[in-house]
């Protein structure tokens, strides 16, 4: 959570964690590993540097047959993160 600038209070109702379904864990793991790969323009985040994704996916052992799904999932998380950060 800290890597995304979140605190437990951001999850609501005093929650300190959240469940990740096993089938989504590789996507969350890759998204977390990409936390230093944000692109910014004039101080505003515009998205992740996708050129790092293939390397990160290989390092985390994502099978090639599942990389499209992980990429799509990362894009969903990226969009939600950008929206949240711009609202802050």
Q: Which terms would index this structure?
A:
88 residues, 2 strands, mainly alpha, two-stranded antiparallel sheet, globular
What would you say about this model in short?
With 88 residues, the chain is mostly helical. It has helices spanning 25-33, 53-59, 67-87; strands spanning 38-41, 44-48.
Would you kindly provide a written description of the structure presented here, covering whatever features stand out?
The structure is a single chain. This protein is mainly α and 88 residues long. The protein is 42% helix and 10% strand. The protein has three helices and two strands; from the N terminus they run H-E-E-H-H. The protein has helices spanning 25-33, 53-59, 67-87; strands spanning 38-41, 44-48. A two-stranded antiparallel sheet has the order 1-2. It is globular and about 35 Å long. It starts with 24 loop residues before the first helix and ends with a helix.
